[in-house]
Amino acid sequence: MAYEVTMPRLGWTMEEGVFGEWLKQDGDEVQAGDLLFTVEGDKATQEVEVFEAGILRLPANAPAPGDVIPVGARLAYIVQEGEALPVESGQAESSSQVAPAASPSQSGSVSRPLAADGRGSPAISPRARRGGGGVGGGWAGF
């Protein structure tokens, strides 16, 4: 199964980051925990690890150093031996609008499985996307 590598949210208010550099090359075999790329967030440059094992595949429109990338945008794919890249048509629009599954306070998961139709699945629920808290909708009692 192919996994999307996406721009992680490195802080609560991060909406985009400056792509630093690839630490692995197209076609490299990667293991969970390998450092994949660097991102310049609001306050620091951070190395981002991959949580899936497979082969790194960079699409033709993969980011270059200095590119400003929105959080959740697709950067690359992790595929298995002999597996083809998912169909690119319509992919960039849907994946760039989906927030990553990562917690905002950590580098987070930079990959998520693709649905059978090759499109990324939503990473968070609509309620979480709205920011509605628990009872009372916020930080009541604090």
Structure description:
The structure is a single chain. By secondary structure, the chain is mostly beta strands. The chain has helices spanning 91-96, 126-130, and strands at residues 3-6, 16-22, 29-30, 35-40, 45-49, 54-57, 68-70, 74-79, 111-113. Strands 3-6-8-1-9 form a five-stranded antiparallel beta sheet. The protein has a four-stranded antiparallel beta sheet with strand order 5-4-2-7, with no helix packed on it. A hairpin with a 4-residue loop joins strand 4 and strand 5. Residues 89-109 have low confidence and may be disordered.
Strand order of the largest sheet: 3-6-8-1-9
> What Rg is obtained from the alpha carbons, in whole angstroms?
16 Å
Put simply, the count of helices is 2
β-strand percent reads 25-35%
Helix and strand string, N-terminal first? EEEEEEEEHEH
> Mean pLDDT score, rounded?
75
Cα separation of the termini: 44 Å
* Major pleated sheet: 5 strands, antiparallel
- List the quaternary state of the chains: single chain
**Uncertain residue ranges:** 89-109
What structural class results from the helix and strand content?
A: mainly beta
Q: How many E-type strands?
A: 9
* Percent helix range: under 10%
Q: Based on Cα principal axes, name the global outline.
A: globular
Can you give keywords for this protein?
142 residues, mainly beta, five-stranded antiparallel β-sheet, four-stranded antiparallel β-sheet
